[in-house]
Structures are given as C-alpha cells and as structure tokens.
Amino acid sequence: MLEFDGLHKSFGEVRVLEGVGFTVAPGSMFGFCGSNGAGKTTTMRIAMGLVRPDAGEVRWHGRPLDQASRRRVGYMPEERGLYPKMKVGEQVAYFARLHGLDAAAATKASADWVERLGLGPRRDEQVEKLSLGNQQRVQLAAALVSRPEVLILDEPFSGLDPVGVDSLADALLGQVREGVPVVFSSHQLDLVERLCDSVGILARGRMVATGTVEELRRREAGRLLRVVVPDAAPGWADGLGGARVVSEQAGDTLLELTPDTDDQSVLGAALRTGRVTHFAWQQPTLVELFRGAVAAPSTEEVAA
Amino acid sequence: MTAPQDLSSSQLVRLVAGREVATRIRDKGFIISSVVILLVIVAAVVIQVVTGSGDEESRVGLVGGDASVVTALEAQGEALDVDVEVVELGDEAAARTAVDDEDVDGALLVGDDAELLVRESAGGTLEAIVQGAVGQLAITEQLTEAGISELDVPEVAVTALDADAAADGQRVAAAVFGVVILYSLLILFGQFIAQGVVEEKSSRVVELLLATMRPWQLLAGKILGLGLLALGQIVTIGVVAVVAALAFDIVEVPGDLISTVAIVIAWFVLGYAWYAAVFAVAASLVSRQEDLATVLMPTSMVLIVAFFIGIQAASDPGGLLARVTSYIPGLSPLVMPVRQAAGEVALWEIALAVVLMVLAIVLVVRLGGRIYSGALLRTGGKIKMREALAAERA
User: Fold this and answer.
1) Does residue B382 sit in the same domain as residue B354?
2) A103 touches chain B (CB under 8 A)
3) Beta bridge partners of residue A211, listed in sequence order
4) B268 and B126 share one domain
5) Per the database record, which ranges form the ABC-2 type transporter transmembrane domain (chain B) (predicted)?
C-alpha cells in the first residue's frame, strides 16, 4: 500500500494542507483532483521529499519514504524538467543511473523506453529541439526508465493532444497491470473517471471525498431524480412534499428528494400531468460530484 | 536487467560530476576558450623569444690568422656579452663579398697591419671585440718575444650583493603570468558553474534531480566535475608553459619556474573551491540567465580587485597592501603566489593564508549550501538570501 497519512503543511501564514490522507493499492490507479491551489502539488512534493511536511508522512509497504526508497519512485513534476541541451537517449540513461541502475543497464533501459515511446529516431537529438509532445514523452521515459515500484505524476496529461493522451493512458495502464500503484493529478475529470480505480478530491487542504467513482456516485445518488413530463404545465412539481425543484425546463425536471420521500408518489404526480417519457435516478458525473464537493464547505467533509 | 541499487553519496556526486565533465567537454564554448588560452600562452612565449633579452650575436669573417685569433675573438666576445661566431674566409675578395652580402657583420684581415672590413660602420661592440682581440694577441706576441710566457694577471673576484635578483625577477614574472591564467580560469569556470546552476533551475530539471539526491550532493558534484576540468586545464597550461620556456631557453633556473607553477596551481585549487561555491550559490538565487550578471557582480568585483592587487604585488611584493591582502580569503589566491615567487614571505604567513582560505571555503560550503538548498526549488524573480535560508528547512 502507498499511504499518504495526515499531511499538514503551512507556508508562513497560509495553511496549504490540513490533514491530507489517502491510500493507493498496488496495481491501482488513483486520480487526485482538486481546484488550482488546493494543495495537490504540495502533497506530491512531500512524497518526493521536495517539501518537508509539518506533520504526517507518506509510507510505502508500511515504511516512511526516505531517500533510498524514493529512488524506486517514478516522478513527473508539474513543471516539466529536462536538460534542454542534453540528448534524449543520454538524458534518459542519466536519470536511470540516478535511480540506481548501473551504466550498462541504464543504457539498455534508456534505449528500450525511447523506442517504446516512439522516440527512436530522435534518440540523438537535443531535447530542446523536440516538439512539446515529444518532450513530454521524454519526461515520461525519465519517470519510467528505472522500472519504478511507484509512480507519482503531477498533471501528466496537461498539454497533450488526444493521441498523446491515449498513448500516455496506455502506458500508465500497462504499469498498473504490472502491479505499480499510480497516483496522478488532473483537471481532466473525464479522464480520471475513465482511468482511475479510485478518486480523491482535495479542497481547502482536506480530502473532501475519497473512494471509487462508484462509491462516490452511490453516496450522491438517490438524491436527484430526473422526470421528463412534456405535457405538464410549468411548476407542476412545486406542490410535491419532500421534493425540491432543482431545475425545470419544458417539462424536463430535476428534483432533489428528501431521504424519506417515496419516489413512487412522485411518479404518480407525474403521471397525472400526462405522458412520462423519462423517470430515473440521476447518476452524477464526476464533474458534478467534484463541483458539489468543492463548492460546499459544510457538507460531506470526509477528511480521512 | 540488474536490480537497481541504492546509491551512496559519493556515487551520486560522481554521477553528477561525470555528467558535468561529459557535457562540458563537448561544449563549443569550453573548447574554444581552452584553445584560446593555450594559443595566448604560446604567443606569449614566442613574443618572449623574439623580443627576448637573449645575448647579442655577431658573425666575424676572418682572413688569415691562426686558431689563437679565433680564441681571442671569442674570449673578447664573451667578456662583452656577445656571442661571437668566427667564419674563416679564403682571401680579401671573399671577405669583401661576405661583408657586402651581409653574410658577416665584419671581416678581419690579419696581416702585418690588421684591417677590419665593415659595410657601413663597425658599431661599438664589433670594433671593441676586434680591437681587444688584436691588441691582446699583439701583447701576448710581444711578451713571448720578450721571454715572458706566463703572465700572472690577478683576477678580480666578483661578489654579487643581490645574487638572486635575476632569478627572483624571473620567478615573479612567471607568477604574474600565473595570476593572469588563474584569474582567467576562475572567471571562466565561475561562469560555467553559474550558468549550469541557472540552467537546472530555469529548465526545472532540478526538481527531478532533487527527488533523487540532496542539494549538497548536486552542488558538490557540479563543483567537483568542473573543478577536474579546470585543474586539467591549468596543469596543461603549466606543462606547456614550462616546456616552452625550457625549449626556448627563456628561464635560467628551471627548478624555480617549476616550483612557481606548482604554487600557482595549488592556489588555484583553493581559489577555485571558494569562487565556484560562491558563484554557484549566487546563481541559485535567480531563475533566468539574464539575471545572472547582477547576482554575480559582487563576486566578480572581488575577483577583479584581487587580480589587480596581484599584479601590483609583483612590483612591491613586500608592501603593506600585498602583505595584508595575501592573508584575506578570496584575495589571497591571486596575491600570495606573487609574494611567494618574490621570495619575501615567511612560512607562517603562507600557512596563515592557507588556513584562513580553507576556513572560508568551509564557511561558504556550509552556509552557501543552505542558501542553495532553499533557493533551488523557488522560481520567479530574484530570491533574497534571507528567504532562501528560511526556506531551506521548508
């Protein structure tokens, strides 16, 4: 297990993290979401030893990460970083060596990864001469070249075109299949929803929601009911007890029900207006979950 | 594939140093500057040879006369500090041709009345040599005729009051030359270090590096890697200079030259360690190459001041300015070699200067290392040293 446990961090007066914690199982992908400035980067930098936490620790296999075990972590910083004038192959090999591979193994691993990520013909070019997309691939190669046991990636998908997104997603899923726990942060929630086994939403320095996308949905589900009644007069649902109208447009009505309200009584009321073309509990998308979690400070503060 | 291993500090430092050497040695700027410095040295040696205070030479043609004339001419030349080369010529006609063609500076016709043929005028030295030789021969001849074969002429004993002056002068000249090289290399490699630090910061690669090593390991690797290159360069320069000086016979006492070169190299090592650390730490405060000049300015100024004091010390090695500055860390590497070469420095003074310099290096590495750690991950404008120190523990 990769465990982030009770991380606190202040920069001067600003309290950035106030007890951030979540766990990532080996062979699973964890999507780390949150608004800008929520503290995602700080959390990841703490894991990499670049920022010292005021309290809390990050553990791998039950032991706190230290300089030696961090060598087994592949990391991609938010601000991409490579030596601009160093050649692709040499650069990737250098990072392999910094992660503990010997010279021969590093050269071989570098050649393998450069080839696998489609950079073979660019191996002897300086990084600064490559397109941004290709530089991103070199960055990924630098993170993967040492066969890391853990991957921590800060916004790995930002700046990639759809093809680049797909190939990076494939590479990460490949790592997950080999049993590597992968943590990545992203604003692209559709991607997180598609790729991740579990999700954590960070807001105001705390985890406001963690769990599988399914779990989060279930927690939010059972509250929003969508009823489409094309023939109903506007305001048809206003008098219903236990249901609040969230939105209504030409009979397409979204209702929020209190827990003890019987949905069948709502259906009855709907049928009385005429045809009912749609009646179903709303499955919130991750975007809606995210908005709900980030927007309302008081509700559902699920700090770990 | 072998399993990845954990790395010790020295392995990490070696990896960083290895990368510095490998990238720098292929860098155009580095290659060009190295070649330029070597060319400057060769040029300096050539200029020394051409304008050099080598002995005057004179070719004298000789018609008639025997070996004693040749000996007498050469002896006279030696007394007057002129290398005399005697060319034996067949007859007067040949002598005239030789003088006309400027094959010889003058031709001596030995007969009952000795005659000196010259092209325009004899020039003081040539005439003096020939006059002296002929005169001496005549005296010897007449003495022999008078029956006196061995004339006991008392020889004048010469006691030089400042016998070392000439050698001192050469050593000081060598030391000044050394200080020029030392200064150039310190500036050059200081720039290299500073650019390297900013490159890592501006490209953000430093975040990836610091995920695998501590800031001091990165700093040590960079200073060590470039230091090896710098040392290689100054040793090469030293060897080239010594070989050239010996080959062209510029110096009189080779041992003195070699010891001066060794002193300069030793001070270079101390000076480099200090300036490289200061330059690296200063550079860590900025994130863009454009801002580099501003933060390096104070240190560059110290280096320039040290350079001029070093040059000045050559003319007044025992003066107050040279004495005081030769103890001050940062200035001492450029002043002390000159004083040592001039030979007017006590052993305790050298020891004091070295100890102070080493202390200063330790201080800069420890304090500077903390500033460097605190500043590396902060990008944006220029960071104040105080902020960097505060951020180091963050």
Assistant:
1) yes
2) no
3) A199
4) no
5) 28-367
CATH code: domain A2-217 is 3.40.50.300
The burial of B244, by beta-carbon neighbours within 10 Å (0-12 exposed, 13-18 middle, 19 or more buried), is given as middle
Q: Is the pTM of this model over 0.95?
A: no
Q: Tell me if chain B has a CB within 8 Å of the CB of A159.
A: no
Identify all chain A residues contacting B206, using CB atoms and an 8 Å cutoff. 81
Report the residue from B12, B19, B204 with minimal CB separation from A81: B204
B78 in the same domain as B181: no
Show pLDDT as tens, one digit a residue, over chain B (394 residues): 456 777 888 899 999 999 999 988 888 888 888 888 888 877 877 776 666 544 567 788 888 777 778 888 888 777 777 778 888 888 888 888 888 888 888 888 887 777 888 877 766 677 888 888 888 888 877 888 877 766 666 666 666 666 566 666 777 777 788 888 889 889 989 989 999 899 888 888 988 998 888 888 899 999 999 999 999 988 988 888 888 878 777 776 677 788 888 888 999 999 999 999 999 999 988 888 888 888 899 999 999 999 999 888 888 888 888 888 989 998 999 989 888 888 778 889 999 999 999 999 988 888 888 888 888 777 666 777 777 777 765 4
CA-to-CA distance for A44 and A77, rounded, in angstroms? 9
Number of structural domains found in chain B? 2
Do B133 and B188 reside in the same domain of the chain?
no
Query: Which residue in the set B23, B208, B214 is minimally distant from A142, CB to CB?
Result: B208
Q: How far apart are alpha carbons A42 and B380 in whole angstroms? A: 17
| B310 domain-assigned | yes
Q: Given an 8 Å threshold on Cβ–Cβ distance, is B15 in contact with A77?
A: no
B67 touches chain A (CB under 8 A): no
* Contact assessment for residue B33 and residue A101, using Cβ atoms and an 8 Å cutoff: no
The amino acid at residue A37 is G
Q: Which of B205, B207, B212 sits opposite A83 (nearest CB)?
A: B205
Please tell me the distance in Å from B394's CA to the nearest CA on chain A. 5
- Residues B172 and B299 reside in one and the same domain: yes
B305 shares a domain with B223: yes
**What distance in Å separates residue B287's CA from the closest CA in chain A?**
13
CATH at residue B86: 3.40.190.10
Q: Flag whether B150 is in a domain.
A: no
ipTM of the complex: 0.79
Residues 211-250 of B with CB under 8 A from A: 211-214
Out of B2, B208, B213, name the one closest to residue A102 (CB). Answer: B2
CB contact under 8 A, A142 and B23: no
Q: CB within 8 A of A30, min separation 6: which ones?
A: A22, A24, A181, A182, A183, A184, A196, A197, A198, A199, A200
Cα gap B357→B267, rounded to integer Å:
10
CB A199 within 8 A of CB A31: yes
Instruction: Tell me: do B64 and B38 sit in the same domain.
Output: no
B204 and B352 belong to one structural domain: yes
User: Chain B residue with minimal CA distance to A146?
Assistant: B4
The H-assigned helical ranges of B211-319 are 215-247, 254-283, 292-315
Name the CATH topology of A222-282. Answer: Alpha-Beta Plaits (3.30.70)
